[in-house]
Write a structure and sequence with these properties.
Helices cover about 25% and strands about 30% of the residues of chain A. Chain A has about 130 residues and is α/β, with parallel strands linked by helices. Chain A has a six-stranded mixed β-barrel. Chain A is globular, with a radius of gyration of 14 Å. With about 425 residues, chain B is α/β, with parallel strands linked by helices. In chain B, the strands form five sheets. Chain B has a nine-stranded mixed sheet. A five-stranded parallel sheet of chain B has the order 11-10-9-14-15. In chain B, helix 17 links the parallel strand 19 and strand 20. In chain B, helix 2 crosses helix 18. Chain B starts with a strand and ends with a helix. Chain C is about 35% helix and about 25% strand. In chain C, strands 1, 2, 3, 4, 5, 21, 22, 23 and 24 form a nine-stranded mixed sheet that branches. Classes of the chains: A alpha/beta (about 130), B alpha/beta (about 425), C alpha/beta (about 575). Chains B and C meet through helix 3, helix 4, strand 8, helix 5 and helix 13 of B and helix 1, helix 2, strand 7, strand 8 and helix 4 of C.
Chain lengths: ~130, ~425, ~575
């Protein structure tokens, strides 16, 4: 029986594509497709029973978000997840700065589960959430 | 039709601030850019996409077009009325604009903070404890026989760094790639690691431990463990050996160590290791600053207030206490009552709860582009791109200052940050009289 | 209260204007617009200076107030700022003070001391733009900066090949490109050696990879300076700073160019000589080399010095002498910043506390003062603390009290390390600086050494930069009443800059922008084109910026003022 959720160590960071696309505007589909995603190790994808391109839900103590699972060009260890910087990753980042002013953007404990029936939030939807009272 | 070539243009994307771009303009548009990396081309070919075309002011739920003076008037009133505003961003604009930002913060008694807090702020805090042995990038080019990228991935984040300044550069005393030993330390085999001479894989959140272990080894202390941070003792001893025996070594560090647990303590440890190494050989360290003028934001804020970021001017004198006076923390405590964001997109880059608290308060954004922050603002004022449509002074990651130039006219009605901020400042002063 | 007139009459002050031979005479000073004039009309605003000392505005010839290492120092030391804040007012911007004040605070505080011209002592050429950005933001004062050239790759190569004219041409180009005022030499050759973590310990050591010696660098640049007719002599921070026994290096350095003296104006300036006046072979037997140095200076007119006097307390050391700063870090254990600059120079910063009870620091205190008291000609020795290395500039009034009053010195001596007291000659020295001599070493002589003809005096045509101090020398002896003198000099009764009343006691009344001076030496067109040709190639190989981006436009300076001379080449 394939496990339906996995504990991972989440790192958010710059990717070349995200770095390039942020200069071109964040409202494009291109941006969403390349930034609302999470890189996983192939073994972990198998364990979750999903294929790359399918949606996953990632949860941390700070919140959760649905993004597309992907395989990156740079190797990723089992048990690790990488998300590009951006509005989707920010649902997961730990805001505690430990008196430094810097939230915890890397090395966050997260849980991943398949979410094939759930949708990835669009930028407009994210804005609505942020602006909601 | 008409074409013109501009030489020695300074790129305004990452902290490399490469100044050898050759831009060809045909009919008022960029037709060709020589020497520009992928990120730079991304900006040069697309900087007109998703731009704010005119100033806007929020009416009910919508942002509607306004004149520049209406927008400035509304913004000035918001700021003059506020008790504890934050003035944030600043890393993607010119020093001249940042100078006006500090003046505005001083005038209204606000908090002057820049994106350093969420990038290399921990590094600065580390430096304030330990100090820093560093240099300008040419020193690396000429002398470095050992280059270590720690938690940094220049192939992705600083594409021209290796060729112009580090691993792949040609220096007076290091003419070829063979003259250099390049090592990458990271949690994953990045593209930078792939082209290094060796790669050390470290467990996430264990940078402090590994740096500490290397320092101990450099000091000839015996380690009790077989492994630290997932790295076998033999590899640690080997690395320490390489470091001690090089002629000129440098660690370039990235957000891999500033953002993971330990934060400023991680950098503290890295700076201490480098300091210790100087007893045995020549060793230096440099942060890989991400934005083209975040260094400038630190420098200007420091020479005007004494502190490089997170400066609280609300009491009539500068106060600095990261964790207390830094933007994310102030927002998480829901303490500020207005914000001015310049050339930055914190709604996209801050933890969600902080972003929500920012969207709740009257928010003024000055930015060329439509961003999540502009879409959440009360007032949006479009601005010209520094280094393309307006000139300005910028600081490279190693503190070298360059004067970015203008080679294209901004769209009709769009002016520079400097002009906007000067107007805003004048208006605020009038209101406050 | 607004005054519509641009005329100002300072009445009945007790004037000390050594350049014009006025020594404590009661006179009026007339000012119109920004100049001293012969007389003014009845509608002039009147400032009553009865019973008060009136001097030209102070001219500080060596201070670290602006640029890359100063700002790195600010960033390094939040703890330095916390104890000394500057509140904003309607006129003043907020800021911080103590040893590394923020830019606005620097301008305000120098003004309240009665200083109106301050020179930034060390601008690394590649980062000179940063120096100017900060100088632009220091209000009120007129300024300039010295360009660091003593470890420059091109200069070392040109001098090695004996290409003196090309070297002079390159210096001329560099001063223009960096908008600098004079040639600054710090630890010649030593900072390049430090680029490899190595040290230079004497004038005959060869610089690694360049086969040139510090002696050759100093002599070569001295010759170039003469060829260029620059307004100020070469400004030299000698090798071996901070090393016991280094007084000999100082004397050798001064002597290295003695045969180049033509009897005209001095050709070498040794800066913060206290730090390079150490005698002895270790910290344990450290003693003062001031007598030997003073003896040399008294016998040789080609040299000028500034003191680099220390005051006890916490401060921050910062110099372009990277190797020395590393050495100080190891000695003190304090945090340390180092920054090497490609092809040119370096820098280092270490917080430091001078302690009365510390034998070495007490000797250092004595060395600076002994130099001041033993050098006979006040026109060739200037008062500085090498701010902030010896002490923050706000300690100038304290240093002044030690110079004018033996009693003040005795009070300090009573508290210092007793072994040091026994070792020093200063307890037995009776000399007390007169107010005229004080005016010389803090303004007249420094202006003269800088070649700033409109500064440092109150003659007709001089810039209207005036300091009024609330001390009456006719009724009070400065030596006996040194606490009052100290208070008066710490708190100028009025400071006038360019004819505008800037401050009254500690209050800043007005804020103006000052000029930034830079020196241009016009060389022959042929020499200029040939050097530019060579430069282009050398540049692309040596630097990581393009030559066109290296050069600073004149209008980058807020209010530039070019001092132009004609070279011999």
């Amino acid at each position: 029986m394939k496990s339906k959720s996995l504990k991972v160590n989440l790192v958010t960071g710059r990717s070349l594509v995200q770095g390039r696309l942020k200069e071109q505007g964040k409202l494009s589909e291109d941006y969403l497709n390349n930034v609302a995603c999470c890189e996983l190790n192939q073994d972990d994808l198998n364990a979750l029973g999903i294929a790359k391109g399918q949606n996953v839900k990632i949860s941390t103590d700070s919140g959760s978000v649905v993004v597309k699972a992907s395989i990156g060009t740079q190797a990723l260890e089992k048990g690790m997840a990488f998300m590009p910087y951006g509005p989707w990753a920010e649902f997961l980042v730990d805001p505690k700065t430990h008196s430094t002013g810097m939230p915890t953007y890397k090395g966050i404990n997260a849980t991943i589960s398949p979410a094939m029936k759930e949708k990835v939030l669009t930028i407009e939807e994210i804005i609505e959430i942020i602006r909601s009272k | 039709m008409s074409s013109k070539i501009f030489q020695d243009i300074i790129c305004t994307v990452c902290g490399c601030c490469c100044d050898n771009l050759e831009i060809e303009i045909k009919d008022g548009n960029i037709s060709r850019a020589k020497n520009a990396c992928a990120m730079s081309l991304g900006k040069l070919m697309n900087f007109n996409k998703e731009r704010n075309e005119f100033p806007m002011v929020r009416n009910g739920d919508k942002l509607s077009k306004a004149s520049l003076s209406e927008a400035i008037d509304k913004a000035a009133n918001i700021l003059a009325d506020s008790k504890y505003p934050i003035l944030y961003g600043w890393s993607l604009t010119s020093c001249e604009a940042i100078e006006l930002g500090v003046e505005l913060a001083d005038c209204i008694g606000g908090v002057m903070d820049n994106t350093t807090g969420t990038c290399h702020g921990p590094g600065i805090i580390g430096i304030q404890d330990v100090g820093e042995s560093t240099c300008t990038l040419g020193e690396v080019k000429h002398r470095a026989d050992l280059i270590i990228y720690w938690g940094a991935n220049p192939v992705h984040a600083h594409p021209n760094h290796m060729m112009r300044y580090s691993a792949l550069s040609k220096g007076r005393f290091r003419a070829t790639r063979k003259d250099r030993n390049v090592i990458t330390v990271d949690v994953r085999m990045t593209d930078t690691a792939k082209i290094s001479d060796s790669f050390i894989q470290i467990e996430p959140n264990k940078d402090y431990e590994l740096l500490s272990a290397i320092t101990a080894t450099v000091k000839d202390l015996e380690l009790e463990q077989d492994k630290v941070a997932g790295v076998p003792l033999e590899e640690i001893e080997n690395l320490a050996d390489i470091m001690v025996n090089c002629e000129f070594g440098i660690i370039f560090f990235g957000l891999g160590i500033t953002m993971s647990l330990g934060k400023s303590r991680n950098i503290d440890m890295a700076l201490s290791l480098v300091r210790e190494l100087n007893k045995r050989t020549k060793f230096l360290i440099m942060p890989m600053r991400g934005h083209f003028n975040v260094t400038g934001a630190n420098q200007v804020t420091a020479w005007q207030t004494g502190y490089p970021f997170a400066v609280d001017l609300s009491k009539g004198f500068p106060l600095y206490n990261p964790g207390d006076t830094s933007a994310v923390d102030i927002l998480m405590r829901d303490e500020c009552d207005a914000a001015l964001v310049v050339a930055s997109d914190p709604i996209s880059n801050f933890p969600n709860q902080a972003a929500r608290n920012l969207a709740k308060i009257p928010l003024i954004t000055i930015d060329p582009h439509v961003t999540l922050t502009t879409l959440c603002s009360e007032v949006v004022i479009p601005s010209a791109h520094v280094g393309i449509e307006t000139e300005g002074s910028i600081y490279r990651m190693d503190g070298v200052v360059l004067e970015a130039r203008k080679f294209i006219e901004p769209p009709n009605g769009i002016v520079s940050d400097v002009e906007i901020l000067q107007n805003l400042l004048n208006r605020v002063k009038k209101i406050s009289k | 209260m607004r005054f519509l007139t641009s005329e100002l009459l300072i009445k009945n002050g007790i004037i000390f204007d050594p350049i014009n031979n006025v020594d404590g005479e009661k006179m009026d000073i007339s000012i119109k617009d920004d100049k001293i004039v012969d007389k003014v009309s009845k509608g002039a605003r009147v400032l009553d200076a009865s019973g008060k000392i009136v001097m030209p505005g102070g001219v500080d010839i060596h201070s670290h107030i602006a640029g890359s290492k100063v700002n790195s120092g600010r960033i390094l030391r939040p703890e330095d700022h916390e104890k000394d804040v500057e509140y904003k007012t309607k006129i003043k911007r907020s800021g911080v003070g103590h040893s590394i004040p923020s830019t606005f605070t620097t301008g305000y505080r120098y003004s309240t001391l009665g200083y109106t011209t301050v020179i930034e002592a060390a601008a690394p050429p590649l980062k000179a733009r940063h120096t100017h950005e900060e100088l632009n933001e220091i209000p009120i004062l007129d300024k300039a900066c010295y360009t660091l050239l003593g470890n420059n790759w091109f200069i070392m190569e040109l001098l090695k090949e004996n290409k003196l004219e090309e070297c002079a041409a390159y210096v001329s180009w560099m001063l223009e490109a960096t908008r600098g005022y004079a040639i600054k030499i710090v630890d010649p050759g030593g900072v390049e050696a430090w680029g490899w973590g190595n040290f230079i310990t004497n004038l005959e050591d060869e610089v690694p990879n360049f086969s040139i010696t510090p002696r050759e660098i100093v002599v070569g640049l001295c010759k170039a300076n003469k060829m260029l007719n620059l307004p100020h002599a070469i400004h030299v921070h000698t090798n071996n700073l901070g090393v016991p026994g280094n007084y000999q290096t100082t004397i050798e350095t001064m002597d290295s160019v003695s045969n180049l003296y033509s009897g005209d104006k001095p050709i070498i300036h040794i800066t913060h000589t206290q730090f390079t006046g150490f005698k002895g072979s270790s910290w344990l037997n450290l003693s003062s080399g001031a007598p030997e140095i003073a003896d040399y200076v008294n016998k040789h007119k080609h040299v000028t010095l500034d003191l680099g006097q220390i005051a006890f307390g916490d401060t921050t050391t910062m110099t372009a002498d990277g190797p020395f700063q590393f050495f100080l870090h190891k000695l003190s254990g304090n945090k340390w910043v180092n920054c090497d600059v490609e092809a040119e120079t370096g820098s280092g910063i270490v917080p430091f506390t001078y302690r009365r009870s510390n034998y070495v620091n007490a000797i250092q205190w004595g060395i600076g003062l002994e130099l001041a008291l033993l050098v006979k000609d006040p026109w060739r020795i200037f008062m500085t603390t090498d701010h902030p290395n010896g002490a923050p500039f706000t300690k100038y009034p304290l240093v002044i009290s030690w110079l004018v009053s033996k009693k003040a010195r005795e009070k300090a001596l009573a508290k210092i390390n007793s072994s040091a007291k026994r070792r020093l000659d200063i307890p037995g020295m009776d000399r007390e600086y007169t107010l005229s001599e004080l005016a010389i070493i803090t303004r007249a002589a420094t202006a003269k050494a800088l070649g700033l003809k409109n500064k440092g005096h109150l003659g007709i045509g001089a810039d209207a930069d005036v300091a009024i101090y609330d001390f009456n020398p006719s009724s009070m002896d400065p030596s006996k009443h040194y606490p009052k003198l100290k208070r008066a000099f710490g708190n100028a009764h009025y400071t006038i800059k360019g004819g505008k009343i800037i401050s009254k006691k500690k209050e800043i009344l007005d804020c103006v922008d000052g000029r930034t001076y830079w020196a241009k030496s016009r060389i022959s067109k042929d020499l200029e084109s040939s050097i530019l040709e060579n430069l282009k190639d050398m540049f692309e190989d040596s630097y990581t910026v393009r030559m066109s981006n290296y050069v600073i436009r004149e209008d980058y300076l807020k209010i530039p003022e070019k001092i132009e001379v004609t070279a011999e080449v």
